[in-house]
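User: I'm curious what two different proteins look like when written out as structure tokens. Can you demonstrate?

Assistant: Sure. I'll show them one after the other, since each token string lines up with its own sequence. Here's the first protein:
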Amino acid sequence: MTAQGPEQRLSELGLAVPEVAAPLAAYVPAVSTGSLVFTAGQLPLRSGELIATGTVGQGVTPDEATMCAQQCVLNAIAALKAEIGDLTRVRRVVKVVVFVASAPDFTGQPQVANGASELLAQVFGDAGRHARSAVGVAVLPLGAPVEVELVVEVG
């Protein structure tokens, strides 16, 4: 019996690796150095469109933002796969940074970020457990409510 790979786990969740989101400016979706891959910040784009816009706690609910964080991770996984070719090469998700466009009184950034963290654990198992920062910000590109970036170790 063979161990399940990340793409099989995604499929079981009813998800798939999307096309890599086109950069919005002068950068690339992911860069490798040594055994690490750094993704650019990924927005909650699906088929080239943001799945939500606005500020969490003021027009965007925490549940909507959590779904956005999941979509951001899918897009980061797409950038990662394009960079390394095969997701089974992932040895460890090292660090996740989740930016949340937040209303001044919104303090639930960690719960929004769980959308990203929990999906990474489901897809990569123990290798998906990571250090994380969840940061509230005033605004994100294109009015997105969430942006996620990853640092991943590959072998």
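Here's a second, unrelated protein for contrast:
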Amino acid sequence: MDIDHFILFLAGAISSIVTFVLQIHYKLGAVRASALIGVFVGVFVLLFPKLCSPYLTENLPLVCFGASFIGMVSSDVLSNYFLIGISGILFTIIFLNTSVYFEGFGGGLGSAACIGLLVTLSVPILKKNGTFSNGFAQLRRQIQIKKRKKRKRKEKNKF
């Protein structure tokens, strides 16, 4: 693996985490946070094209913008920074290996981001006792438990 690929993997992980932080902790909203990351990296590459190799100049904005889609995930679904970073790395792997197939398709970045996030979400489900289980039922149950905890906290704070 050369330095350009390492930089792309790192950029994918960082941009997904930063988007998530901007969305959740700074209350920017998912779309604004993703757009901010995409614009920031795009402007950086346009203003300083000599800092990056031609390969990075072409692919870095796409990887950062696509990985920022992962950071748009709801904190009810995934709130672990490590797993969000891993999803960003998985997105980068998928992007690098399938970008030829998505040429001309409008949803190539979003599709690869969705696949990367779904793979990360499925790991705990597949890991449970080494058997397959109904992932959607477990995901729904986890969301319901988090909602109940939030309601209990709100009720406790009222008194």
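A detail about the second structure: The chain has a mean pLDDT of 84.
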